[in-house]
Design brief:
heterodimer; A: 308 residues; mainly alpha; 12 helices; elongated; B: 317 residues; MetI-like fold; 74% helix
Amino acid sequence: MADGAVTARPGANAAAEELAVQAREAAIRSQGYWAGVWKRVKRDPVTIACGLILLTMLAAIVFAHLIAPHDPYQGSMIRRLRPIGTPNYPLGTDELGRDMVTRLLFGGRLSWFMGITPVFLAFLIGTTLGVLAGYAGGGVNMLIMRTTDVFYAFPSVLLAIAISGALGGGTINAIVSLTLVFIPPVIRVAESVTTGVRNLDFVDAARASGAGAFTIIRVHILGNVLGPIFVYATSLVSVSMILASGLSFLGLGVTPPEPEWGLMLNTLRTAIYVNPTVAMLPGACIFATSICFNLLSDGLRQAMDVRA
Amino acid sequence: MLIYLVRRILYAIPIALSVGLVCFMLVHIAPGDPINAIVPADAPQELVDQIRRDYGLDRPLPIQFGVWLGKVVQGDLGNSLATGRRVWADLSVAVVNTLRLALTAAMIGFAFGCLLGGLAGTFQGTVIDKAAVGLAVAGVSVPHYWLGMVMVILFSVNLNWLPAMGAGPGGSSDWAWNWEHIRHLILPAVTLSVIPMGIVTRTVRGIVAEILNQDFIQTLRGKGLSSRGIFWHVVKNAAPNAIAVMGLQLGYLMGGSILVETVFSWPGTGFLLNSAIFQRDLPVLQATILVLAMFFVALNLIVDLVQTALDPRIKRA
């Protein structure tokens, strides 16, 4: 932290501080750094496997309209809750007789969209504010970082539910509330990484040679801080997906009959006595996606850690 | 230390006030006029104006905030729009239930987290390490509301060992520490404990590995200290940071139990929040969030102070 004296969350800054150290070291030896990172990632089979699984999932949900065998909204009362392995319906049917394969494919679209969009928006807004706070220092830093502290006083799940609950349900409101939840942690990381880079010699050299603040930030700061902030943001995607689906599970996100994994899990809850395996499928999809994102982001962080 | 103590407590006051402001604003970011939540849509205009004056909704926002804050400080959290009862009456019962669930989950999660993390940090790079790390990643990646449903299917539907919902036999709300009640606590508490388990495992593993790599451990080994003696040194060095992480996790559990409480119909704050959201009962929503956030602020403060007291190396200006 800039003031180093009193922070709202001691210990919680460890991750940010570590990233700041990494960014400093990366900035010092930037030549060939990314090549080295890629080389290390290539040698890590878990990271590669998770990346491939996620790419496959992405392709499947993007082309859902081409590969899905049935209509995602068209149900039938005579074939409700068929078990896994039913001819024509390999993963069974849901409580309204809709094909589970189709629903899961189309459901992935909204689940991924609602999981990734808030992190992406928070990455843009949080980086802007964090770099500003870290570069400007002084009063600007004070204002931005103390406001961030306020949002740190709420557990993230609670904040997301509070804002969604006040705004009311709906996809857009859920995305807005999750974005607000993820902006403060991104600001913290961006600020601490920027503070780490700001006082390096080449920034002083640029300033001495007459470069303006905007040029320094654009050329010298951003290039060195975006990587660590991006890796931090990827670690948020998993939480974001669980929370986004959780909001839909509570009825605060997507509205029926739109397919979305969290909402599907909620509507299939009543079926756990009839057909438990089918009812568990949407949750298994959330789990698989979130664990892959977590492992991928762990792998990226390890590959970027020049000290390892 | 005393100066730090005073400064830290003073610093908590603006944070608590800002948290109050955010909770106050929750009602005002809600779409539509807050008055619409109180009076029916077909009420005559005079009545609407009358109620608006009674509730003070015609005054400027800063004054409304001041009035609201004054009431909150005196313990008046308003009345529920849905039931007309004092919010505090329902909320106090729910907070105790949530606290019971969160504390049990925390104990389970912390015990397993410390055990797994300690083992993984000690035997780095071995099968034990990989298994512990794998469990930890699974713990932080699992959607716990889904895990709760899996637990219900396994232990309630298939094996019929444990009840699937409620906090006591026959839906009773009076708690007692007997087997009939504890049975109801097991599934939700275990479900809720996987997240802190994962996070504590990761943290403790990192801390233990770092301590074991330090020179003084080498020295202790060199002078022939038993492994039990070394273990004690590791615990003493790891405790401050581990306790800090665990304290914050307890706060997250209190706020994050809403989804698990919904799955298991546990009569806590999450359940209250859920019904408040669907009845658009904004006073209950606001008060529940406020109380939970204040718990979190207080916990942050305590964690900070305990950490400083435990670790003489932390010198804070």
